[in-house]
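[recover] target loaded
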């Protein structure tokens, strides 16, 4: 069995509906989409995959977590499901993997939706809360809450218990390796430069109060021909959790346009 065959996959909605793949960010899992999925299944076959090192997928220490390798595994998983075409939506670093997948498999990816995915390293807003140490491991709830605090717009936002559990279930190696892989991919080349030549419809959704990626940087994606940027006032880095209906409204309007 290959590594890609061990990835945990979740499917919701009618199997004959247009496929919509959701890719979670680092230190998260497919569960981060739980509140959004019921709003999408009326018109989509929604597919979620726990990336290697996350959720219910394996967390080996001796396998590459590079962005290109993660994208390759996602593509292989869709192949096993018999999915030939999909709109791909990624949250945060999941949007980086979505970009890599579109570059690797342009025939598979019909369109892209990036949710609070920073376009380049220059847009990142460093914070002391972004750091997490290996000792002790697994971390206590309070350490995880501090680590996750910039993922939401409101200081003191109660991070859902299931997301605390997802971080605790990771190994320190899988956490650090996936975050380093995102940094390396963005260091090599900014996402708008990678996306511009692909000719794929692009929607960028950004919470205006993002505390991880400079919100104004969403405009950097406008160099991609036909790209649309939708800013969500009052929301932060994780609009899919903070306001699922508003996030779903933007996403569904975009996917509906791909079927015309």
């Amino acid at each position: 069995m290959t590594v890609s065959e061990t990835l945990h996959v979740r499917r919701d909605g009618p199997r004959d509906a247009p496929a919509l793949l959701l890719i979670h960010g680092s230190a998260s899992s497919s569960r981060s989409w739980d509140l959004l999925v019921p709003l999408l299944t009326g018109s989509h076959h929604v597919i979620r995959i726990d990336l290697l090192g996350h959720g219910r997928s394996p967390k080996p220490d001796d396998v590459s977590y590079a962005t290109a390798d993660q994208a390759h595994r996602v593509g292989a998983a869709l192949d096993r499901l018999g999915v030939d075409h999909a709109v791909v939506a990624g949250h945060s670093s999941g949007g980086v993997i979505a970009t890599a997948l579109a570059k690797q498999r342009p025939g598979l990816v019909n369109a892209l939706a990036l949710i609070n995915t920073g376009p380049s390293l220059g847009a990142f807003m460093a914070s002391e809360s972004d750091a997490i140490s290996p000792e002790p491991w697994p971390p206590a709830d309070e350490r995880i809450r501090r680590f996750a605090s910039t993922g939401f717009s409101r200081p003191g936002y109660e991070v859902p218990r299931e997301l605390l559990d997802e971080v605790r279930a990771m190994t320190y190696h899988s956490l650090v390796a996936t975050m380093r892989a995102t940094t390396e991919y963005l260091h090599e080349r900014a996402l708008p430069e990678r996306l511009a030549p692909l000719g794929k419809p692009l929607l960028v959704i950004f919470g205006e109060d993002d505390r991880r990626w400079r919100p104004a940087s969403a405009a950097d994606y406008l160099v991609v021909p036909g790209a649309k940027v939708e800013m969500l006032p009052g929301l932060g880095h994780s609009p899919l959790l903070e306001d699922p209906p508003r996030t779903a409204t933007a996403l569904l309007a975009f996917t509906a346009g791909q079927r015309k």
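[recover] notes: The CA atoms of residues 29 and 54 lie 6 Å apart.
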